[in-house]
Write a structure and sequence with these properties.
Blueprint lengths: L3 H9 L3 H11 L9 H28 L21 H8 L2 H4 L4 E4 L6 H14 L4 E5 H14 L2 H10 L2 E7 L6 H14 L4 E6 L6 H5 L7 H8 L35 H13 L15 E3 L2 E3 L21
Parallel strand pairs: 1-4, 2-3, 3-4
Antiparallel strand pairs: 5-6
Helix pairs in contact: 1-2, 2-3, 3-6, 7-8, 8-9
Length: 318
């Protein structure tokens, strides 16, 4: 039986794994004792393993890890760096990536933060997750250039869609306003959708200084800052004012107020004589009433404004 046409057809169908397995089985004498179903099962297993290996290499190449050969199997727990073996083995299961949780790795320079992070990222690539590695200073520089050459949308989409984003060497330089905005947008879009791993030499308490923006006040800090000095009363947290509705100015009632001056009464009588009131139920449009909210507004002709002495601004309508 000629096997060359079969191998060529397998390669034409991009079944390279099955073609290689077919050649190997043809060279083994024990393979002749296998049945057709066993042959087919072996060919399918080799093809599935070959495709999985190609996908893993593609993900690892796209991740651009600083230590591409780092693996969790090579971690030395005897090194004096206070690494919790049980916790690290739990992180190696990549369950925190499936749950879209974040990881912060802090420590002094030279303890192996980047290498351990790359080992976790390499394990994530093996488990089928997409990863992207970037040093924080270079990432901010790329984002600034992307704003100018039109690549920002594509770069931002890639940063927000990967399963694991690894930001290495966070700090100690303070962020600018544009860098803060870009970082906030990335973290906001990734929240609940993907995991972010950040390594830094600075403790988490000092990150607010790196970001360059003071933290939002908490109720306790507001209470302490609003308590007057030397007062024995307890401070209360400030409450945000409730939104108020903007209404047109209303004329206040004159019950209990002193009588109007004589000249105001004369002007009122003149206006009533010039514009007599229509009976109720008329359909005239010159004196039609409109209601805005619960304030009744009556359009008038353009004319001089009058001060009624109640302290409210007059209403002029064209």
């Amino acid at each position: 039986m000629l096997t060359h046409p079969t191998i060529e057809q397998l390669r034409a169908l991009k079944l390279d794994g099955m073609a290689e397995a077919f050649i190997e089985l043809q060279q083994q004498d024990q393979a002749r004792e296998l049945g057709h179903a066993e042959w087919l099962a072996l060919l399918l297993d080799r093809e599935a393993a070959s495709r999985g290996t190609r996908r893993y290499r593609t993900r690892l190449r796209a991740a651009k890890l600083r230590h591409g050969q780092a693996a969790i199997e090579d971690v030395d727990y005897r090194t004096p760096r206070r690494l919790d073996k049980v916790l690290f083995q739990q992180l190696a299961t990549c369950r925190w990536i499936a749950e879209a949780r974040n990881l912060l790795v802090t420590g002094k320079c030279g303890v192996g933060k980047s290498w351990l992070s790359c080992a976790l990222a390499q394990k994530a690539c093996r488990d089928g997750y997409t990863v992207y590695y970037a040093r924080a200073p270079r990432l901010f520089a790329d984002l600034e250039l992307a704003h100018g050459d039109g690549r920002f949308a594509r770069l931002f989409r890639m940063l927000t869609r990967v399963d694991l984003l690894l930001l290495d060497d966070w700090g100690p330089d303070r962020l600018t306003a544009n860098q803060r905005r870009d970082l906030m947008e990335i973290i906001e879009d990734r929240y609940g959708r993907g995991s972010t791993l950040i390594t830094s030499q600075l403790p988490v308490e000092a990150w607010h200084e790196v970001i360059g923006e003071p933290p939002l006040p908490t109720p306790s800090s507001i209470a302490s800052s609003t308590t007057p000095t030397g007062s024995h009363s307890k401070g209360r947290p400030c409450e945000s004012p409730r939104p108020t509705r903007m209404l047109l100015p209303q004329r206040q009632s004159r019950r209990g107020a002193p009588p109007r001056p004589s000249w105001q009464r004369e002007q009122r009588n003149e206006r009533r004589a010039e514009h007599p009131a229509r009976p109720r139920g008329s359909t005239g449009t010159s004196r039609a009433r409109r209601c805005v909210g619960h304030v009744a507004v009556t359009p008038r002709r353009a004319g001089p404004s009058y001060d009624y002495g109640d302290g409210l601004p007059p209403l002029n309508y064209a």
